[in-house]
Specification:
The complex is a heterotrimer of chains A (333), B (285) and C (251). With 333 residues, chain A is mainly alpha-helical. Chain A has helices at 8-35, 38-63, 71-88, 92-114, 119-139, 141-144, 171-193, 196-206, 208-212, 218-238, 241-244, 254-267, 274-292, 296-310, 314-323, and strands spanning 150-151, 158-160, 164-166, 246-247. With 285 residues, chain B is mostly helical. The relative contact order of chain B is 0.20. The mean pLDDT of chain B is 86. The chains are: A mainly alpha (333), B mainly alpha (285), C alpha/beta (251). Chains in contact: A-B, A-C. Chains A and B meet through helix 5, helix 12 and helix 14 of A and helix 4, helix 9 and helix 11 of B.
Chain lengths: 333, 285, 251
Amino acid sequence: MAMATGSPQGHTRASWRAGVALGLLLLVLFLLPLVGGQYAQYLAIQVMILSLFALGFNILFGYTGLLSFGQAGFYAVGAYGCAKLLLLKPSLLFGVLGGVAVAGVAALILGILCIRHTRIYFSMLTLAFGMMIYSIALKWRDFTGGDDGLVGVPRAPLEIPGLVHLSMASMGRYYYFVLVITLIAVALAYRLVHSPLGLTLRGIRDSEGRMAFTGVPVRTYRLIAFVIAGLYAGLAGALLPPLENTVTPPMAHWTTSADPVLATLLGGIHAFAGPIVGAFLLFMIKDIIVRFTEYWLIWLGLIVVVLVMGCPGGVVSLARARWLAPRPDGEGS
Amino acid sequence: METLAFQGVVGLSLAMYLWLVSAGLTIIFGVLGVINFAHGSLFMVGAYLAFTFYGLLGWNFGLAIVLSLVGTAMVGWVMERFFLRYLYGVEEAYQLLLTFGFVLILDDAVKMIWGGVFRIPAIPAFLEGTWPVFGRPFPVYNAFIIAAGIVVGIVLWLGFERTWWGRTVRATASDREMANAIGVNVPGVFSGVFMVGAMLAALGGALGIPVRVVSPGLGAAMIIQAFVITVIGGLGNLKGAFVGSLIVGILSAYGTLLFPVFELALIYMVMAVVLLVRPQGLFGR
Amino acid sequence: MTAPLLETQELRKTFGRLAAVAGVSLNLTEGTLTAIIGPNGAGKTTLINLLTGLLVPDAGTVRFKGEDITRLPPHGRVRRGLSRSFQIMNIFPSLTARQNLLLPVLSRLGRNLRALTRLDRETEADAEVEALLREIGLWEKRDARAGALSHGDQRLLELGIAVGTRPELCFLDEPCSGMNPIERQAVMGLMRKLSGERRTTFVIIEHDMDVVFSLSQRIVVMNHGEVLADGTPDAIRENRAVREIYLGGEV
């Protein structure tokens, strides 16, 4: 539960405002297919996918203090995993959950190699392993389709044998599917972050040495955070193939790994909603930049530099200072 | 058998580019304590600059290299003096993020300024031709590269161990407050070291232009390899960087010969083994 | 005679050519409060680092409650009932005082891994944390960010984290440094209380001789990595060798 050093009235006012804002947002999200066209729904799905990607990244970075430049690797594993499964058996849940599972396993294996090191080393390793996955996706033609990737991935119907069979052919249906999955995943993450495990991860970020002396095996918990981030990246990736009907190697490239990093920096590292806000902002920014120039990486790079030099707390930290009651650093919203 | 030996020597010349870049990365880390994610991009900038002077404008090869070093050193200077310097006391993550931002900027900037992919320029006349090695023609230019790499290694070693400048740098690296207290211009040393590191990377890039294509992907590919070398050899350790470069270079050459589809697999496997068996690298502490 | 809680045999640790700890054999009895004193560089902190698992000795063994823990990592030792505080402040700066103490308590209750329960529903942990906060006098500042607390308060918090796991054996590295007399009394009171009520065994490194002589039942004097003298406060006061190394100052 968020705690404030401000007055009780100030605290209640702030939660009330946050609650109303959240309620409005949910209303908009649920009504979108009724008022927005196909393209708006498509964009919203992309933003939700990026939000999940960034949320997982921040559990690793903002909460545990580990900066990974290779999350796109698990994003791609989730995507390719889902695509392969859907091509095998066109059942949406089978594909998506299968993709997540494969990504989780990949995160476990690579995690064991990466988390035993100092933070700097860790960051280097994640970049290297992320690109290793990219190389595999690019070169292993027989399995991944190489350069061309996998095509013809169906937007399979949502089926639970005996209970449900829903076609996902319409964009609206798939939008609601992604929305529900996203809300569940966000709620889970929220619960996790405000649980004893969440506090333990933050303790690890603040002082690993001290943490060890409270009786906690720090490496194990780093691995847990890494796998959670991998699962969320995998989920984000797995939601893409049914939408686009294709997966290609650039999904694993380090420039894709930059997306959750940027989204989180933009929105705020130390706020739960930061990555989500940042995902939305990043999308808008990319959308605008791409209209003017094909060189959008340079602008993203400039944004990173400006943020790191000037405003490492991200947009949410600015909003907090003005609209919400003063809170101790590091509290979730 | 001869094919294998020959390929080994080819790998040796490949290793030298890697060595130049890794040496720069290692020195910067050893003295400033910063991992410069943009180091591969500096390699790329060096290559593009040298290519512009030698390949596009047709100037003298040696002059082109010198100009490329100067230009890249200036880029490095700007990065350190106006940005990185302000983050020295701050959490490492922000330093990594900053240099990551530079990668994004430089990689696209290069695309903007120079456009797409170019033809490889001719090898300078006096370095043309081949020598027979293990019964096969080995390009003189590659031998030149190997010689250059070894010379740089010796110069660096002598520089750090025997000169006054080297001693000052090492003192600053181990205790910057103390160095400051005895009158060393610590910020100046940091800038200087960063520029030297940038020049090493640029040298690697510049020397490569008559044999490989300059393309925007060079930077990213190089930094990944530099990281792998650092893992294998050990962080902050010139000896480790040299040996690591040799291993990666020679393995790459064998990989291309024996597993043409996925030559990188061999290197990543070695990296994984090192990580499991000796996590601090072969020469790391 | 009860078995010693902790015993070391010929513990040795060398850095380069310097033997920081040169063959220390020590026994600690349950429920006692021992002070380790000695000039700077005597090897006191290195010894504590060896006993708490931050360093692995070059030779010698450490046994805790009969079990060989020489190579056990810190978190394993804490799980078995050890704990420590640090000379250089080592709290969780971005967390509140309350959260700082929640961590060791949650660890003791084995609840760190709970990912789906709410932190604000940990009633058992909360109760313990409240008691501890009141004990060290930080209840009013429970929601303050630990990094923003005064130096003295941070030291108290540091102590709180160390005793939060309800250790059987607690090493405190200069617990009273930089504290005003009131805070010092609070720390000493807490140690006496825990020593009496819970039979917690304390080992403190301290330079403040008032604290050392009024609090400890046993004093171990170290110099050059070895134990120079070991006995009751009175015996140490009389010891000529000890007097010498303190340059004839009032001991």
